[in-house]
């Protein structure tokens, strides 16, 4: 029996443009979602849930693996429309359900260096504000991450109903 060879997706890189600043900066996005904090918190730790909603912009497929314990690692691979693969890896630093989640984040956009993501879940009046801060990003990638996280949170909101 002949095996069908499926080509591996090519990984992408995001090198800094000439003259671009790689100084570390922070970005912040937030979204109020009509869902309980625990459900939203859990959606950040369950690989099947991550694969379903963490598809910023036009990402066509996301694959996720996670060991959601402090010190555990995760991997999130996002496949782009052209077949390119954007790999994200990190380690869980703090898991305080359903209030706070902190993890490192390394990807081609961070030049494969650890950055830090902190997410706070503030539940009130039947909805939860998801407040995300991403620190230690190269400055030239800051706006791309604002857009990416905003898009991902929109898809998280859509998975749980709507924005509140």
UniProtKB/TrEMBL annotation:
<protein>
    <submittedName>
        <fullName>Uncharacterized conserved protein YndB, AHSA1/START domain</fullName>
    </submittedName>
</protein>
<comment type="similarity">
    <text>Belongs to the AHA1 family.</text>
</comment>
<dbReference type="Pfam" id="PF08327">
    <property type="entry name" value="AHSA1"/>
</dbReference>
<dbReference type="InterPro" id="IPR023393">
    <property type="entry name" value="START-like_dom_sf"/>
</dbReference>
<feature type="region of interest" description="Disordered">
    <location>
        <begin position="1"/>
        <end position="21"/>
    </location>
</feature>
<feature type="domain" description="Activator of Hsp90 ATPase homologue 1/2-like C-terminal">
    <location>
        <begin position="35"/>
        <end position="160"/>
    </location>
</feature>
<dbReference type="InterPro" id="IPR013538">
    <property type="entry name" value="ASHA1/2-like_C"/>
</dbReference>
């Amino acid at each position: 029996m002949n095996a069908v060879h499926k080509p591996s997706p090519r990984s992408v890189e995001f090198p800094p443009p000439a003259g671009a600043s790689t100084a570390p900066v922070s970005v912040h996005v937030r979204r109020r979602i009509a869902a309980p904090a625990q459900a939203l918190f859990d959606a950040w730790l369950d690989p099947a849930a991550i694969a379903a909603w963490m598809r910023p912009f036009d990402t066509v497929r996301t694959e996720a693996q996670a060991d959601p314990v402090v010190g555990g690692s995760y991997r999130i691979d996002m496949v782009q429309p052209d077949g390119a693969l954007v790999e994200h890896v990190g380690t869980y630093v703090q898991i305080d359900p359903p209030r706070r989640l902190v993890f490192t984040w390394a990807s081609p956009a961070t030049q494969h260096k650890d950055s830090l993501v902190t997410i706070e879940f503030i539940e009130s009046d039947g909805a939860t504000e998801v407040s995300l801060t991403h620190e230690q990003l190269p400055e030239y990638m800051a706006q791309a991450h604002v857009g990416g996280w905003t898009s991902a949170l929109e898809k998280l909101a859509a998975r749980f109903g709507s924005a509140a």
